[in-house]
Amino acid sequence: MDNKPLTPQEVADILKISKSTVYDLMKRRELNSYRVGKKLRVDMADVEKYKNKTKDPTSPSGSSETIKIPSSAAYEDHYFINNTFIISGQDVILDILCRYLNRHTAGIRALRSYEGSYNAVYALYQGEVQAATAHMWDGKTGAYNVPYIERMLPGTPAVIIRLASRMQGFYVARDNPKNIRGWNDLIRPDITLVNREKGSGTRILLDEHLRKMGISGKSIKGYAKEHQSHIAVASSVARGEADCGIGNEKACLQVQGIDFIPIQKEQYDMILKKEDMNQPAVDAIFSILRSDDFKLELQGMGGYDLTELGKIIAET
């Protein structure tokens, strides 16, 4: 028999199953695998062995439910034997949550994917992460997140959990020398904006307000200049590279030389697939979010309204 090494995709093609199922079989040790550098490989002999084993009605069926391994090829290098749970989002709340998860008795290995709201939810839909976070404002309804989740997860029941409420606003130079007060000021010829990247909740907020006002982003000086975080935007304003940026109040507290003009209170939520709600990692997340220790640590940082922390605010 030709015992050539196979990629997970080649195994999936042979067995007529999805690549994510191949990863799941590897994780449960039902299909032997090994690494060549950072890549996973399977010998053809082990594929035949697996096929023959499953023909035996007395063969054990496998194991208890496990969290699915991401199916995207980009995540092949992040395959772990232990329970792995990937959370996508950019707020420091998630760094703290992952620290608590990694110490939890459930034995979860928590990883981070640093994506903006839109890309995080899309990765959840694609099965590349197990949890996404978002703060996407819908200008038609005035609601956060739920309208987007309903559109972006078609046919996928989801649960939306409140993490925090935060104040969004303008970052301006100390004492606001350009007297920037509202959205209309952004179209003034003497104002230079520094923007967030496409897909971030802050960029969606700006674009939705511009749409409602009938204003093209191209008419705003600096609209095309993008940064990947609130801190980077605030720092750009502090250095005088722009007159105004948009972000949350917490980041403003971390950068010297700027003021914050509050504009709108936003909701920052976590999105999970309903099919995963009984997973050990999800149980651990709810336990942590609703614990006094976690809430007190966030309160000590400031900048968050934690009144509804851990509350299920919608199901789609």
TrEMBL record:
Gene3D superfamilies listed in its UniProt record: Periplasmic binding protein-like II
GO MF, one annotated term: DNA binding
Top-level taxonomic group: Bacteria
Pfam families: HTH_17, PBP_like
Alphabetized SUPFAM superfamilies for the sequence: Periplasmic binding protein-like II
Residue stretches making up the Helix-turn-helix domain: 6-53
Domain PBP: 100-289
Signal peptide: none
Protein name, as recorded: DNA binding domain, excisionase family
Organism: Ruminiclostridium cellobioparum subsp. termitidis CT1112
Lineage: Bacteria, Bacillati, Bacillota, Clostridia, Eubacteriales
